[in-house]
Amino acid sequence: MRALKTYTSLWAMQPHDQTGVRLSFDQVCEMVAGAGYDGMAIDLGASDVATAHAVRPHMEANGLTPLIVAFPKTVESLDETLRLACNFGAPFVDVIGQVMPIALDDMVPVIETWMEISERIGMPIQFETHRNCITNDLYTMLQLLERIPEMRVCADLSHYVVDREFWYPVSDDDRALISRVLARADSFQGRVASRQQIQLQLDFPQHQKWVSLFKDWWREGLASWRARNASGDCIFLCELGPPEYAMTDANGVEMSNRWEEALQIKSWIEDIWAELDAT
C-alpha cells in the first residue's frame, strides 16, 4: 500500500517563525507531532551528531520518524552517518555531498562509492538537488543520472530554479529538464523559489506565479512516484529555513510566518495526493 508521509526539519524549527523564539526539543517535537507530521529531518549540516542524539528521545516520545541529512566532506565519512541512520531507524539518508570534483568523470566514482557504502551497510541513500555540493548544477546532475542509472534523487527544485535563474514563464525545454529529475525522484522537499530568491513568502501577490509553478512540479513529481511505486512511503519534507534562507526586513524580522507557511505546503501536498488517489 502506498502512503504519503510528511516531514518538517529540525533546522526549520529553530526558530520556527518570525518571533525568533527557540523552543526546547520537547516543545518542538510536541508541536510537530501535533500538526500531523510523520517525521522530522535532522540536518547534520546545520547541527551535529550530539544534537541528533539529544533530540532523538523527544522524537520517539512523540512518534516522529527521524530522517538524516548528511553533508559528507570525504567519501569515507558517509559510512559513519549511514550507521547512525540505521541506529535511528531512518527511512534513508539524504546526501548533500561536499566532495565536489570539477570534472564529471571524477564525480561518477564518488557517487558510485557512496552507493556501494550504502548497499554494504543496508541504509538507502538519495542525492539531494542542492547548491554547493556535488549535485550543484542541473546540467551536471542530468549527466550523472544518465551515467549512473541506479542513482536516486531527493528533489528540492528550489535550488535549480536559483542556480539556472529560470525566467518566468519557464520554457518548455527547461520544464523538460526538470521532468527528467522528477522521474528519478524518490522523495521531495517543499520550498518555493524564484530565479533570484531561494525562499519566497507564499501569500505575496507577486509570488503567486512561482507558487503555481512549484505546485505543478510537486503534482508531477508525486504522480511520477506513484506510477513507479505500487507500495511504500512517499516522503515530502516541508523545509522552510530560518534566516538567511527566510527574507527579513530592515530590523532583521522575518517577513512571514514560516510555521504557518509550512502547514500550507503540507495541506497542498495532502490535497494533491488525495486528488491523485481519486483519479
Keywords:
alpha/beta; TIM Barrel; eight-stranded parallel β-barrel; 9 helices
Structure notes:
There is one protein chain. The protein is of the alpha/beta class and 279 residues long. It has one domain: Divalent-metal-dependent TIM barrel enzymes (TIM Barrel), CATH 3.20.20. It has nine helices and eight strands. Strands 1-2-3-4-5-6-7-8 form an eight-stranded parallel barrel, surrounded by six helices. Helix 3 (78-88) runs parallel beside helix 4 (104-121), helix 5 packs across helix 7 and helix 8 (208-228) crosses helix 9 (258-278). The longest helix has 21 residues, at 208-228. The chain is globular, with a radius of gyration of 18 Å. The protein starts with a strand and ends with a helix. The mean pLDDT is 98.
Provide the helix percentage.
40-55%
Widest beta sheet: strand line-up: 1-2-3-4-5-6-7-8
Overall pLDDT level: 98
Structural domain tally? 1
Number of helices: 9
Q: Name the overall outline.
A: globular
Write the CATH fold name.
Answer: TIM Barrel
Strand content of the residues, in percent?
15-25%
Task: Just name the CATH architecture.
Answer: Alpha-Beta Barrel
Q: Provide the structure class.
A: alpha/beta
Question: Terminal Cα separation, in Å?
Answer: 16 Å
CATH class: Alpha Beta
Q: How many DSSP-defined strands?
A: 8
